[in-house]
Design a protein that fits this description.
The chain is an alpha+beta fold. The protein has 16 helices and 23 strands. Helices cover 39% and strands 22% of the residues. Helix 11 (365-375) packs across helix 12.
């Protein structure tokens, strides 16, 4: 079938959201075209890490054996050090079944597996194809895309539904006019590099390090490499730009647990990553279009949730599309709006939590005491990691009642500044209320008429503060 034909669904973007969605829809009997500007295999900026829920999604997709065959080691334990000596490490080796608790897979190997699964399911996959515009009917409903294929060949692709799975700079989202809301601007920039010849323990660990201004994680990946990601403060960016390699090496040297993992190893790539990593939600759907994956919602990359989010959203969106496809436009639109509500509900707490972890500075007294109490018991450590593994929402793992207990414990501790503790406790409670309000009453991005740049209200900026002042 030629790309210039007509399909039930056209998906723009073929990576961790687009190709799995195409596979699910094709298996349900819909005709699907996938358009991607890249040629696979190709690399993309990524944390590489995904959690147990994503492993289960890959098994349901039928590609877990192929992903395992890339050689990524099974993550058996976590090493986690926070401010003031808080240790939240855990051993995952006692999992109840054969599934990994998580994996760390290079995207140049993972994405082709997903693309080939979509092809095998019957989707028409075309690469080196850029979308330039949306096609609308007389009522303004999106009914296809205008694209440019290899050799700059103009192609019109008609479809009953257009899906944007094209990442943070979503062309579909921009052309559809999808607005962003509940933005959180990053205070760090993120860079990663690969190391060879590391002495990887038999129980392969993921290492997470967060102490005031130091932030990084490391994990073994394919081809006996270790990926290290660091998140320096944005204030350090000018010095980094003068010598990125030197800046990266200096950052790794600060973090003893990460440094130990690659002791004797050689950094074999130059650092690469992102400077702007604004977290946001985008309006998810409108007449004839819908967004999935990073195109519709992006979290701070620190906890590495993006791949799992993409796979879960693809499953849920596939059910929404197939459930409403044969019942007319109104039924389909209703199901797509239901997907939007589900996406925001399941992602809201994690949206704030991911940025909380990344915010530079000393963790506030009450929050640090909550973490210290979690780290004191195996059950508490499991609750902490259940948030990373997406087994629990942050409020289930880091419960408001834990903050009450932590406040009471601090107030009984000799030498503690009680006024600071009480102020911190009140701030956390106010912050919780404000975040809940923000998800019910979306705070949309405002754009400067002079520069076109996005701005965010002082209230929204205040709502993301979990850590203390920069000089604390």
């Amino acid at each position: 079938m030629a790309v210039g034909g007509s399909y039930d669904v056209v998906i723009v973007g073929g990576r961790c959201a687009g190709s799995p969605l195409a596979t699910h829809l094709s298996r349900a009997g819909l005709s699907v075209a996938v358009l991607d500007r890249a040629r696979f295999p190709s690399d993309v900026i990524s944390t590489h890490v995904f959690q147990r829920g994503a492993v289960e999604a890959l098994r349901r997709l039928g590609v877990l054996d192929q992903v395992r065959a890339t050689g990524a080691p099974r993550i058996s334990r976590a090493i986690a050090h926070m401010d003031d000596g808080v240790d939240l490490g855990i051993d995952f080796a006692g999992a109840a079944d054969e599934l990994e608790m998580g994996m760390c897979v290079r995207r140049i190997l993972l994405d082709p597996v997903l693309v080939e699964a979509a092809r095998a399911a019957g989707a028409e996959v075309r690469t080196s194809t850029k979308v330039r515009g949306l096609i609308r009917d007389d009522d303004g409903r999106v009914v296809g895309v205008q694209a440019e294929g290899p050799g700059n060949r103009a192609v019109d692709v008609r479809a009953r539904l257009v899906v944007g799975a094209d990442g943070v700079s979503s062309t579909v989202g921009a052309l559809a006019g999808a607005r962003r809301y509940n933005l959180i601007h990053n205070a760090r920039f993120y860079q990663y590099a690969y190391y060879a010849n590391a002495r990887i323990p038999e129980q392969a660990p993921i290492v997470f390090h967060r102490r005031r201004y130091e932030l990084g994680f490391a994990c073994p990946t394919n081809e006996d490499l270790v990926i290290i990601t660091v998140g320096p403060h944005l204030a350090d960016l000018p010095a980094w730009r003068r010598d990125p390699g030197r800046g990266f090496d200096a950052e790794v040297a600060k973090m003893d647990d990460i440094r130990d993992l690659v002791a004797g190893a050689t950094r074999v790539t130059e650092p690469k990553g992102v400077v702007k990593a604004t977290a946001y939600f985008r309006e998810a759907t409108g007449p004839g279009w819908v967004l999935v994956g990073d195109a519709g919602h992006f979290k701070d990359p620190t906890p590495g949730q993006g791949i799992a989010d993409a796979l879960h959203q693809a499953e849920h969106l596939a059910r929404a599309i197939t459930g409403g496809f044969g019942d007319g436009r109104r039924a389909l639109d209703g199901r797509l709006h239901g997907y939007w509500r589900w996406r925001d509900a399941v992602s809201a707490q994690r949206h704030w939590w991911a940025s909380d972890i990344a915010l530079p500075g000393k963790v506030s007294p009450v929050s640090l005491e909550v973490l210290r109490r979690l780290g004191a018991t195996p059950a508490g450590r499991q609750r902490f990691w259940d948030t990373f593994l997406q087994r629990r929402q942050p409020r289930e793992a880091l419960r408001p009642f834990d903050a009450v207990l932590a406040t009471a414990a601090l107030l009984r501790r000799p030498g503690v500044d009680r006024a600071e503790v009480l102020a911190d406790s009140r701030r956390l409670a106010q912050e919780e209320w404000e975040r809940t309000w923000a998800m019910r009453h979306r705070r949309y991005e405002r754009r400067s008429k002079a520069t076109g740049s996005d701005t965010i209200s002082r209230l929204t900026a205040d709502m993301v503060r979990l850590t203390g002042p920069a000089n604390s």
